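Deliverable D4.2, example record:
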Amino acid sequence: MSRRGWAYFLAMAVIWGIPYLLIRVAVRELNPGVLVFLRTAPAALLLAPLVVARGQLRALRTHLGWIAVFGVVEFGIPWFLMSTSEQHITSSLTSLLICCVPLFAVVAQRIRRTEDVIAPRRYLGLGIGAVGVAFLVGLNVHGGTLTWIGLMMLVCVGYCVGPIILATKLRDVDGPTVVMGATAVVALAWLPWALTHWPHYVSGETWSSVAVLSVVCTAGAFLVFFELIKEVGATRAVVVTYVNTAIAVVLGIVGLHEPLTAAIMVGFPLVLIGCVFATSNPRVAALPVSPSDTAPRPSRLRPRPARAPRGH
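Output generated by the structure prediction step:
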């Protein structure tokens, strides 16, 4: 990736490494549906003036259908499932399971056959990451955790489909417009649930967690994520989940005193190695050129038109 791509990549790793701890804190007092509403409603209100100032209301109306679909599959449903799962499993395991997103993205890419060609080196990285995730899950399945792990797999599907919608249906729409419209749609959808499940008391710690989740990890994060997709492509962009896992695991262990298990110690390095390979560009070795190869030769083949670049 380019330096610009790596800058966006590392920024997303930090921003999306924080939410797992904050969600774990917030769901102690908030219903998962209420938390989804509190994450999306403030983000929509914050971005609304920017959308108006840029004259994007017409674009919002024109693309509202796909913006709504993006909002539902990217955070409307996944955030409810994730918050529900974090009531039963640790934030560390939750973040580790999100590492399945790049694997699902590759499967989707091969089905669609519309993305750029994936080099063998990246397949190797995704394979190593898959082994690490399998190791992590295999050592953590016990009791009723299988149900919550299954919900997290649905979250991964949503996180895989969302970037594809951005890259194909909303590529020409302004980033703040997409985020504002999507968060507004999701907030309105969850409003009745929030009103009927509102808690009697919310502590300052919970309000602080919700504020960071909404402003930094929602409004700000998706704006950066759009730029990351434009820079490196949808499939490679979701590999950021490998790196934000490192931050999430450390925060879970240090901030929430979650155990450092053998599964994390062995499986986690594998997903990091997978990240390095999966995000790298293959180097094409230069072939030796003889003097005779430089001489012009008449072509026997008809010239082929240049192939238009595919969208990310």
